[in-house]
Amino acid sequence: MSRAQAHTLEALAAGMILVSSLVFALQVTAVTPLTGSTSSQHIENQQTAVAEGVLASADEQGILHPTLLYWNESTGNWHGATTDGYVRSGPPTELGSVLNETFLERGIAFDLTLYYIDDDGDRKPRPIVDLGQPSDHASSARRLVTLSDDDRLRERDGSVSAATLSDASYLVDDADPTQQLYTVVEVELVVWRI
Question: Model's pTM, two decimal places?
Answer without folding.
Answer: 0.77
